[in-house]
Amino acid sequence: MKNPGSFKVAGDFLKEVSLHDVRLDPNSIQGRAQQTNLEYLLMLDEDNLVWSFRKTAGLPTPGKPYGGWEGPDVELRGHFVETGGMNDVLYRLFTVTGDPKHLLLAHLFDKPCFLGLLAVQADDISGFHANTHIPVVIGAQMRYEVTGDPLYKVSRHLFRWTKEVAYADYYERALTNGVLGIQRGTEPGVMIYMLPQGRGVSKAVSYHQWGTPFDSFWCCYGTGNFLPVKWSAGDKLALQLPISLRTEAIKDDRAEYASVQAILYGHYLLCGYSNGDWDIKTGLTGSVSDWIAPVPSGYNNHLVTFSQDFGDSTFVIANSNRSITMEKSPKAGTDAALHATFRLIFDDTTEKISTIRDAIGKTVMLEPFDFPGMVLVHQGTENNLAVANSPDDEDSSSFRLVAGLDGKADSVSLESESQKGCYVYSGVKYSSGASMKLGCKSASSGDGFNQAVSFAMDKGE
């Protein structure tokens, strides 16, 4: 290391700029290299890449294996889709978990027989495989800070630690010659394994020569493709796993549950909610996936309950077999709590609220949590409320959330959009099972009416 006396952790010196703020000129050598790399990755078939993994696991093997180092008879098969530098990865993990087991495991990948030579500055590392040993050096640097992968990043850290310009010069040369130089122009998937260092030598007639897109997969193909790929805080990765669903009889020998089936996704048990008959009737569908409708994750937003206090008791609006009734406040986590949970569906589908109180003044429909796709509807004034399929005209299912008519700061009332002045009404007789209806305010309506149409709105189950 040059200038070791000035070594210290880099701090804010040369602080990284977020890659979200960086754009490559598409006509620059870097921009062309990135596009070439992208075109190659899009040429690759996922089934072919994981063929050997599936074969080893005893799974069906659609597609066909790629050649070269990904061939099924090569001990390095699978390396293209794996990561190098395990000590680097585990040191990163330790910074997240603080678990000493992760720190110990990282040490086990440090390869002291190699790092020891570096520590004593012995000139005895010629001929070592760079793609294997450089990640070990990076992992050693991880004792000081989180880092990346290849050799030019080693020089970056040394530059930040020592401020020695020679390392920055090396960084630039390594990036241009050692990274961009392994691609053959703009031909996707044509890379070189070893860069010849002799005078007058040619890449084309070197030890391995130029590779091919589907029958080489040397280690330079892994690092060469993955170097331009960077993750930053806040990035999200979505995985779609084509694991088939299946059913199994539940492990319960009681006669009444003999026909009940569990739905399994891989080795995970899927939890579902049903009303009425527990037996699954698949009809003419060909697979389990065809007759299961997943609940969208967005349905977790805007879940609410509506309640009223009466004496020492609290009652909630609940869906009871598609009838809307008042029920005693249930315990959290029970089926009854689900019956008392509704999702606010806004008239403006782009509506975003940070708290449920922000919904005051908005037009909403109320979807029972246990009946996705259905909504609460009125059937005219003084008639009972019900649950029905979402109507086309939405007149009977749209309500405006307004400040509670009882005047309390934390209450709301639900006014029908099609019957102005009419509200979701609980009545003045509080008992479990009492039907809800649409009640209209009149000149003679008093405090009892205002109380009966005012509810506390809280976060649902």
Provide keyphrases for this structure.
single chain; 3-stranded antiparallel β-sheet; alpha+beta; 2 domains; 461 residues; 16 strands; elongated; Trefoil (Acidic Fibroblast Growth Factor, subunit A); 25% helix; 6-stranded antiparallel barrel; 12 helices
Q: Tell me the Rg in angstroms.
A: 33 Å
Proportion of β residues?
Answer: 15-25%
Output the strand order for the largest sheet. Answer: 4-7-8-11-12-16
Number of distinct beta strands: 16
Helix content: 10-25%
Reported for the largest beta sheet, the result is: 6 strands, antiparallel, barrel
On the 0 to 100 scale, the average pLDDT is 77
Number of helices: 12
The end-to-end span amounts to: 60 Å
Protein name: Non-reducing end beta-L-arabinofuranosidase-like GH127 catalytic domain-containing protein
Organism: Corchorus olitorius
Pfam families: Beta-AFase-like_GH127_cat
Domain Non-reducing end beta-L-arabinofuranosidase-like GH127 catalytic: 21-81, 82-152, 153-224
Summarize the structure.
Helix content is 25%, strand content 17%. It has 461 residues and is of the alpha+beta class.
SSE inventory with pairings:
Blueprint lengths: L28 H15 L2 H4 L1 H7 L28 H12 L2 H9 L3 H8 L10 H12 L9 H12 L2 H15 L39 H8 L18 E5 L11 E5 L2 E3 L32 E8 L2 E8 L2 E6 L6 H5 L2 E5 L16 E6 L5 E4 L8 E4 L9 E5 L7 E6 L5 E4 L8 E2 L1 E4 L6 H6 L2 E5 L2
Helix pairs in contact: 4-5, 4-7, 7-8, 8-9
Structural notes for this entry:
The protein has 461 residues and is α+β, with helices and mostly antiparallel strands. The protein has two domains: 4-226, no CATH class; 298-459, Trefoil (Acidic Fibroblast Growth Factor, subunit A). 25% of the residues lie in helices and 17% in strands. The chain contains twelve helices and 16 strands. The chain has helices at 29-43, 46-49, 51-57, 86-97, 100-108, 112-119, 130-141, 151-162, 165-179, 219-226, 335-339, 447-452, and strands at residues 245-249, 261-265, 268-270, 303-310, 313-320, 323-328, 342-346, 363-368, 374-377, 386-389, 399-403, 411-416, 422-425, 434-435, 437-440, 455-459. The strands form four sheets. The protein has a six-stranded antiparallel barrel with strand order 4-7-8-11-12-16. Strands 1-2-3 form a three-stranded antiparallel β-sheet, with no helix packed on it. A two-stranded antiparallel ribbon has the order 9-10. A hairpin with a 2-residue loop joins strand 2 and strand 3 (268-270). It is elongated, with a radius of gyration of 33 Å. The protein starts with 28 loop residues before the first helix and ends with a strand.
